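Progress against Task 2.4 (sequence-to-structure conversion) is shown through the following example record, which the project officer requested during the mid-term review.
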Amino acid sequence: MKLYAFMFAMVCWLFSVSTASLAAQSLEGYIVDSLTEKGLPYANVSLNLTNKGTSTSEEGHFLLSIATYTPQDSLVISFIGYQPQTIAVSDAMQQTELLVKLQPEVSVLDEVVVTNSAIAYSAGTENLGVHHKKTAYPMSVPFGYEVATLIDNPQHKAGRLEAIQFKLKEKEKEGYTIFKAYFRLSFYEVNNGFPGTYLSSANIIIVPDGSNTVKIPLEAYHIRFPETGLFVGIETIAPEDHSEHKGMYLTTPNILFTHTDTQRYFKRYRGKEWTQQQSKSVFKPKLYNVPYMKLKVRYRK
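Structure tokens generated for the chain above:
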């Protein structure tokens, strides 16, 4: 009887240790607006030292596995229009559930466009971007990655964005798990050849509806078109939690790429540093890969 009681106690102890270990391998919490305390949808949460992260749900909830973190690591939390926040993982581990309140940034750029709404613009619009090549091919971009395309301003005068168009394609591949993706659009100033400051704090989420061509009106966002051009970012977002998946996967729909004779394509992971991409076209090795993109711009008179 004593042996049975001892064995039962050991099983209970092992179970409790196992449960505690599992709990210690993940961080859970909410990312909210510091003023309204409403959840921020699809905010980015990642480990600083590795490209491992997740995004929040529509309610601002997140669950992040940290089984491989180091004591020096930290959480990097970011969301468009808000000041990013960094939290030491060792501190976060002391809390059962995190509540991260992000401070909104004051967008002077947006205010300038709104207050100068009386500025006269031309009646016609111009189509700019990377859309003249006939060759186009789909590429799967993993969750959390953002690809940015440089759009030149050939007239070197200010304007505003009227609309954007890019292309998607549903695609599957044998041997890979396929996950549905959403996309987030962002717009950046050009800073020493790299994407710089946001031109808009709007959280523009694209929910694919099966169409190959995505057309988004932009007049309501009051996004200016600088004399030096701008970058357009497309971030791949997971609408559902796939953190338990360990194998290879592809996102769908794929972003349609084409090619250009100049390098104008950048990439980053969950709001971290941008890296310039040098990938060459599989069809024409002397040309560079770049997302297919068309912007409708209205210039100032």
